[in-house]
């Protein structure tokens, strides 16, 4: 009878209730795990989180905080792009932070003695990554874009576009020609241009291979077009592989850039315009729009998937570095790469797709030696114009896409050799009684043909070679050391406002001619494309760092009482900024190449 009491009743019935609660809890936990796993597998956040944890070396420390309120997603016909319109977050990557060793890649006005070679010794972007002297800047190209398709170019000769400004070299300060009046005939340019331009190049700091990382740190949506051709056609919304990418206009894009100076840890401080105190930001919001098709915003995952298992290499001067860092900044927003660089080259590995981004420094892209030759002393660098740079050629078979940048170093002191015979020189020709057969302008054209022929005939190279044409500088009113300035430029130039630069025009012409000669000699399965950005970027006088080249709080940013402008960089490009368009063009060229081959193979 006692076991029928209320006390006994409670004791007997407590056990079933406890078991029920345990069963319900286990069921809810299992349901939570299933839903959580599905979410992680179904959304990009999963791969991004895994990238942060698994794509960074153990020695790296990343502190990435991006406010979701500052992110805007824009959808295009082909690409979905997440844009960090603004961010107060700071990205720190201890392995990505360069140690300042020796000369910096700054745009400081050098005071080196005439003829003293610039130190191009390698510097590391990371403690482990190499940085080869990448302090050169491309010249601007003008006029109609040259056909990039190899088969078409073989049957056509390209016209040399006209350029806007002066020539400068890497590291920030440039060698420049003040106007086309400094240039004579194509046959005489070498001497006259060299003297005007090159006499000053000795005091120019072409920069080094060191990448100095940036310190972590808008208007109406009206579309204003700047064009140099016709009006936008009705079918401009489509992306057509046959479209001329280099005829179009700059349109205002209120969404802004794909990254900020605070979300890219590999951005060189010299190009960190916002971090260096530049007060305006509108220059970040202009996008290039071809007349006949769309150039979609850069899609990092589209790029990584197209390049799956492949390597892209940026080879050349400091402008090559400028472009490579722009690409890394964009890709960094999707996945944090592993730094696998060494003393010979910078290398960043994206684990999710096994993509490698590489940079190799090569001042002239041809062979350099120092040994005395004939009457040329050991103290002057010798350029073998008919032989490619051995240091880069040994790596060529490893690359699937190669982007080349060269030209400005031909304003530096050097001796030119053909068949081991001294045929010319720049800022060096001691025996005036001897006729100089090759000047610096001709030497550049020969070098372009040499490196491209070497790539096009290499038995083990089957990749895509992209030759980016000269990037124009904008030292208005003079050269870098004679009062030239780009301070206060906030918008692209309008049609008809471009000031032509004779030196850049000639250099671009030599580059195009060298390109056309080389593709006729192509014997392997590689392909070559000319990415003719010169004319396009002549409108972007607003995209340079100007006086905002460092974090120095006491730097001069305005003209002095005598009207003299402060030291400034009007050759390299702010990041983010117009230079990001170069990589949109690179992605489009790669898309045309690989999507076509993928569809045909399937």
From TrEMBL:
Record field: transmembrane: 20-41
Domain Trichome birefringence-like N-terminal: 242-294
Biased composition (Low complexity): 85-97, 127-142
Region listing for Disordered, in residue ranges: 79-146, 542-569
Protein name in the entry: Protein trichome birefringence-like
Organism: Parasponia andersonii
Compartments reported by the entry: Membrane
Keywords assigned by UniProt, alphabetized: Membrane, Signal-anchor, Transmembrane, Transmembrane helix
Domain of life: Eukaryota
Pfam families (UniProt xref): PC-Esterase, PMR5N
Family: Belongs to the PC-esterase family. TBL subfamily.
Keyword Coiled coil carried by entry: no
GO function terms (MF aspect): O-acetyltransferase activity
Any one GO CC term of the record: Golgi apparatus
Keyword NAD: no
Membrane topology, as annotated: Single-pass membrane protein
């Amino acid at each position: 009878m006692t076991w029928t009491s209320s006390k006994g009743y409670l004791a007997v019935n407590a056990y079933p209730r406890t078991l029920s609660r345990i069963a319900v809890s286990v069921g809810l936990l299992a349901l939570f795990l299933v839903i959580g796993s599905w979410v992680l597998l179904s959304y990009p956040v999963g791969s991004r989180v895994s990238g942060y944890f698994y794509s960074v070396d153990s020695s790296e420390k990343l502190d990435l905080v991006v406010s979701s309120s500052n992110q805007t997603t824009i959808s295009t016909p082909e690409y979905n792009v997440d844009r960090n319109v603004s961010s107060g977050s700071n990205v720190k990557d201890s392995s990505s932070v360069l140690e300042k060793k020796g000369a910096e890649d700054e745009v400081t006005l050098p005071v080196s003695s005439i003829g003293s070679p610039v130190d191009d010794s390698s510097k590391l972007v990371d403690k482990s990554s190499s940085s080869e002297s990448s302090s050169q800047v491309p010249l601007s190209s003008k006029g109609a874009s040259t056909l990039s398709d190899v088969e078409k170019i073989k049957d056509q000769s390209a016209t040399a576009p006209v350029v806007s400004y002066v020539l400068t070299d890497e590291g920030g300060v440039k060698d420049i020609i003040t106007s086309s009046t400094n240039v004579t005939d194509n046959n005489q340019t070498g001497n006259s241009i060299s003297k005007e331009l090159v006499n000053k190049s000795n005091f120019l700091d072409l920069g080094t291979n060191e990448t100095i990382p940036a310190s972590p740190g808008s208007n109406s949506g009206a579309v204003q077009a700047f064009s140099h051709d016709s009006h936008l056609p009705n079918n401009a919304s489509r992306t057509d592989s046959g479209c001329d990418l280099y005829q179009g206009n700059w349109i205002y894009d209120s969404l802004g850039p794909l990254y900020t100076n605070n979300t890219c840890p590999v951005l060189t401080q010299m190009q960190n315009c916002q971090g260096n105190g530049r007060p305006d930001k509108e220059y970040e919001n202009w996008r290039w729009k071809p007349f006949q098709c769309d150039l979609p915003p850069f899609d990092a995952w589209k790029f990584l998937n197209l390049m799956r298992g492949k390597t892209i290499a940026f080879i050349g001067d400091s402008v090559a570095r400028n472009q490579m860092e722009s690409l890394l900044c964009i890709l960094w927003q999707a996945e944090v790469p592993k730094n696998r660089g060494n003393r010979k080259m910078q290398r960043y590995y994206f684990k999710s797709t096994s993509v490698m981004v590489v940079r190799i420094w090569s001042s002239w892209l041809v062979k350099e030696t120092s040994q005395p030759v004939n009457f040329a002393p050991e103290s002057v660098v010798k350029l073998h114009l008919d032989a490619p740079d051995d240091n880069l050629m040994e790596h060529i078979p490893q690359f699937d896409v190669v982007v080349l940048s060269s030209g400005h170093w031909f304003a530096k002191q050097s001796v030119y050799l053909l068949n081991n015979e001294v045929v010319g020189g720049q800022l060096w020709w001691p025996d005036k009684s001897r006729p100089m057969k090759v000047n610096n302008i001709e030497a550049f054209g020969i070098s372009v043909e040499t490196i491209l022929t070497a790539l096009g005939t290499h038995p083990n190279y089957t990749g895509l070679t992209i030759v980016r044409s000269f990037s124009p500088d904008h030292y208005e009113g003079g050269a870098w050391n004679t009062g030239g300035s780009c301070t206060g430029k906030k918008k692209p130039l309008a049609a008809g406002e471009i000031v032509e630069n004779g030196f850049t025009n000639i250099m671009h012409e030599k580059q195009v001619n060298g390109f056309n000669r080389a593709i006729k000699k192509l014997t392997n399965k590689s392909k070559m494309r000319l990415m003719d950005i010169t004319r396009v970027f002549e409108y972007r006088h607003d995209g340079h760092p100007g006086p905002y080249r460092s974090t120095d709080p006491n730097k001069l940013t305005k003209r002095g009482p005598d009207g003299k402008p402060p030291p400034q960089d009007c050759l390299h490009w702010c990041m983010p900024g117009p230079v990001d368009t170069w990589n949109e063009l690179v992605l489009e060229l790669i898309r045309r190449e690989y999507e076509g081959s993928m569809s045909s193979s399937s």
